[in-house]
Amino acid sequence: MIEEPKSLRIGPDVGRRPSPAQVAAFQGVPTGFVVDAMSGAGAMAHQIAPLTSEMPAVAGPALTADNRPSDLLATLGALRSIQEGDVLIASAQGWQGCAAAGDRVCGMARNSGAAALVTDGPVRDLAGIVEVGLPVWCTGLNPGSPFATGPGQIGVRVVVGGQPVETGDMVVADSDGVVVVPFAQLDAVIARLPEIARMEGELDTEVRDGLRLPDPIAEILDGERTEVL
């Protein structure tokens, strides 16, 4: 006989957050720079996109909510644990059959201090979400209503858009998508960001000045690594 599960479980790391200085280091940094600083890692699948083209860029600590498909009890329960500036990561286990959240959930998240909502499901109430003003990254729109019966978990490891996310990881989201920086890698990634920005700036200048082919690619084309058939 299966034991009746608890409606909600709260993980031990629900209060873990980066330092204010670590959070500040990611403000205004493009997602592409963050991915490059992690050697190409961290990006969620392209299906998780900004709800509208007007969504502002956001960077903040993750607070995770692990929901069963078609349910949002964990998302609602996580509202009590939101700290100012958190990005609420609402896992729907990829379920597309109904909304993972709507304008009222987004409104309550905004009232609780959340900076954004990221989910691997669709959302509903587009006009209401826009009015609330909470930036949302999701898989699209679906007017179907979810349940709030659980079971669900708060502050535990989830996988959203192919990326593992734990509470306290940094989430950076902009018009290109969503990137996750693991808590243990924050300082290493922060240390690389200035060099990434410098290299990107130099290449931008070269392109504006007429660059047609990067030197490393020219070396490959002209060297032994290229075979002409």
UniProtKB/TrEMBL annotation:
CDD domains named in the record: RraA_family (cd16841)
Which organism does this record belong to?
Litoreibacter ponti
Q: Does the keyword Magnesium apply?
A: yes
Span-the-membrane segments of this chain are: none
Protein known as: Putative 4-hydroxy-4-methyl-2-oxoglutarate aldolase
- Which residues of the sequence carry a binding annotation for Mg(2+)? 124-125
Q: Which InterPro entries match?
A: RraA/RraA-like (IPR005493), RraA/RraA-like_sf (IPR036704)
Residues the record lists as binding substrate = 102-105
Query: What PANTHER family has UniProt attached to this entry?
Result: 4-HYDROXY-4-METHYL-2-OXOGLUTARATE ALDOLASE 3-RELATED
Q: Which residues form the signal peptide?
A: none
Name the cofactor(s) required for activity, per the record. Answer: a divalent metal cation; Mg(2+)
* GO molecular function list: metal ion binding
- Any idea which UniProt keywords this protein has? Magnesium, Metal-binding
